[in-house]
């Protein structure tokens, strides 16, 4: 099972590396950063921030419910 995770991590790392290499080749050929790459990275960061804020909000709600149940039981 751990071997499968290692293989998946290697594939993900290879994918990330290959996309980074493509982005570098694009920016090297034009001499500047590609707007599409910047937009893609910004969108990915927004998704990660939204996901983490949902996780934090969920934890806060669960703790609040636990406190309310403790006091009213």
What does this protein structure show overall?
With 73 residues, the protein is mainly alpha-helical. The chain has one domain. 92% of the residues lie in helices and 0% in strands. The longest helix is centred in the last third of the chain and has 38 residues, at 35-72. It is rod-shaped and about 70 Å long. The relative contact order is 0.05.
The tally of domains stands at: 1
Unreliable parts: none
Count of alpha and pi helical runs: 2
Total number of β-strand segments?
Answer: 0
Rg estimate, integer Å: 21 Å
- Overall form: rod-shaped
How far is the first residue's CA from the last residue's CA?
44 Å
Instruction: Spell the H/E element sequence.
Output: HH
Average pLDDT number: 79
Structure classification: mainly alpha
The share of residues in extended strands comes to: under 5%
Q: What about the largest sheet?
A: none
User: Which percent bin holds the helix content?
Assistant: over 70%
């Amino acid at each position: 099972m751990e071997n499968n995770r290692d293989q998946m991590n290697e594939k993900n790392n290879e994918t990330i590396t290959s996309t980074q290499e493509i982005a570098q080749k694009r920016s090297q050929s034009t001499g500047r950063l590609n707007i599409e790459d910047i937009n893609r990275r910004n969108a990915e960061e927004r998704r990660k921030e939204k996901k983490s804020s949902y996780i934090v909000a969920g934890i806060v709600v669960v703790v609040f419910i636990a406190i309310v149940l403790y006091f009213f039981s």
